[in-house]
């Protein structure tokens, strides 16, 4: 159905091709998963299927791409619209009209289908995707999962034979992601739709794939095969595969269920009381001794690592004495008629990493906003260190709390890394060179004149983090930090955050990424509907929850193991 | 209900508002429009209150100017005397400060009220039928232009959200988020974001078949071009004819022929676009009634204004209490028809 024949794509003004010698085929009715680290050209391959590469993006495409027998060289994207449906990374950028029903009809209108057919298909699609209750809603009022489903529905109505999706579940909470994936599976099984999808969060999608196309590194030819075979050699893999590799299971299990059936011997080998998450009482937080957040491998703490490079300024060797970092109680936040927080609270002590979880719209970002003074609560109290965030001028506040927002790009204004760093020093009142030294420590090899936009998603996040850290806030907040990050970038972030916590920084992560929370956080706070519904050690909160449990916990339950690293440690 | 009907009704009410300065009549008109909006409103997040506020602002500004700058109305009832700013002789005819008369203020009030009523009628149209829905009813050949406008309209809320986000980010960087300089520095990232979103949207629209064209035989294409061009030329020449004294005979027929040719060209041009309409709005009996009520209000009030100017434009010199002219008021009440004939709005889900 989709056929790549020795395809290389070179964008204008770039010497190296973005992808080289891509040659594979996806037969009709299969779900193919495109995997690989960031920057290997996954989006380019996806764009080539719909003809947007090179017709829309420019550049040169060598070789041949055919979809349902149509050559993309002679067919422009609009002429492929009846066979290929494309949903990009950001569903909001995809919507042309303003209500759900119109959006579903838009594609069919462009293709000139008869009104009776359109009417029928809209109703069918509303039922298929469970959108019937939302038909008249304004698109702006939908939640993330609903938007993603509407975006998929809007390309489904013309009955395309191929569906191309770029990271369909990255921005979604676990439950909403399941919702979207269930729909995709139904399309593949019931309608015989061919799906090609790229996704970083393999733990969510690998079990649905019939075939995996792996782009191992930039410019390398892809490896194509059955999921289990490809995962055995892939540089990116989900925790279930990591556990399988660790236990030398062949063939590799891809689902929690398969792994569980193999895991009985492994469970026996593991020490029974080794479920270390439970050994510690929930109320006290001794600094950094648990397996869930061991000291950084380098042995040195964060500021000692970077301070060698920093010239002058404050003494970087020892961390400042930190009191209780943040205390928020009984917060009430209303936005219009919507209550975002009702009585939620959060306290953070030095050296503690807290994961804030809950479905989209549960109030995570609002709580972070209240801690940074972006949101003024109607009732309740917030203090960060000695100050009340909403009543503190920004210049003063950055010394107490820093937030890396969901879109790190929002924090970056300048057009070179050097200018960005100079501005950050100025904003924070730090000695010149402080920020640049941080960047050099965190992102070795990024030159001064790089434009922040040219950095990869992960590098941009770290640059934003460095900008925030320039003021050395004792409390560090990150909103959804792993969106769009591959496993390597995530591992780097985990290292940095652990080192910061070891230096006494309090860190709060709002995240949907259960694997990240399991790896990093000692404590998990679950929010639902603006209220805290659970607050306790990661192992206790997460293991019992079906949607927030990491894969390793599901496989090795009832033992409270959270990450592959813990298991590896225990087996040693 | 066809959105065109609502706009016709609202514009009819607006036209009626421009014909009179009688505050009682205008008040009645405003009440009628508010009642219809309250019973038939379909658009979520209505624009009506915003337009009402805008109307009030306009009225207030008109009064403030009348107070500060004086008024051309010769009045005898001096309410208060402001200190007058002496102006050089070349600024003769301009006055700042000085006597404020009841007559001048009242005249300004009547005048401002008329403008405010017009604005409120436009607001009523906006909240009864979103402009984007109106654009969807454009003929096929103009559809693509209509979509472009709709997209532009949906961009405004995105832009506001962007500004909020970037301002929040400035605060996170420790920069002041208020003040003029703060606002200026927000501009660039917001524009950048808007540009990126437009490119992404353009790609998505292309991939969804926007701009697909059907094969049209060459003779039809040529006829379309000839009709459209000829029609436009006819419209130009006809308008010229109407406006010059000499061309009274050929002006009107030429204009009508030009319009007809241009419309035919548009209709033929629609063939190039293969697109179809999903659940198009039908112009049914109810729509005709709604349109008719608007047209009737406009026509009757205009006629009344021509036949009895003193009742519809009450004088301010000497000061008299305005009376409610019976028949024009009855005409305005015709504008209530939509409240009874329009289908009840569905509960927003």
From TrEMBL, chain A:
Gene3D superfamilies listed in its UniProt record: P-loop containing nucleotide triphosphate hydrolases
Bias (Low complexity): 278-294
Record membrane topology: Peripheral membrane protein
Stretches the record annotates as Disordered: 263-324
Keyword terms: ATP-binding, Cell membrane, Membrane, Nucleotide-binding, Repeat, Translocase, Transport
Domain ABC transporter: 2-243, 326-554
Pfam families (alphabetical): ABC_tran (PF00005)
Annotated compartments: Cell membrane
Family: Belongs to the ABC transporter superfamily.
UniProt-recorded name of the protein: Cobalt ABC transporter ATP-binding protein
